[in-house]
Amino acid sequence: MTKTSVTAALGGACLMLFPVTGAAAQTWVRGAEITGHAVQVETNGVVNTVNFDPGGTARIVSPSGQTVQGRWFIDNQQLCLETSARECWPYQQAFQT
Q1: CA 13, CA 95: separation in Å to the nearest integer?
Q2: What is the spatial distance between Cα 94 and Cα 38, in angstroms, rounded to a whole number?
């Protein structure tokens, strides 16, 4: 899996999630809603799984089982994924499926 596919995978993951509004947003702890969850992301017809493991560990798994290790974290209201490079996306509200 290349950096481009990892970037596209997380970008796709962000597109599949929607902001939460109302009372849930008032008690939100950044990252709590994604910790321990996996997101399946389709990029160019290939479905990868991005795992947001506890402690900030990330795993991106391809359909063939190839795994890219990394970490995820919150920085300046951005959700960041770091493998061989760092990619960040706006993260100002909690996500929900």
Answers
A1: 10
A2: 16
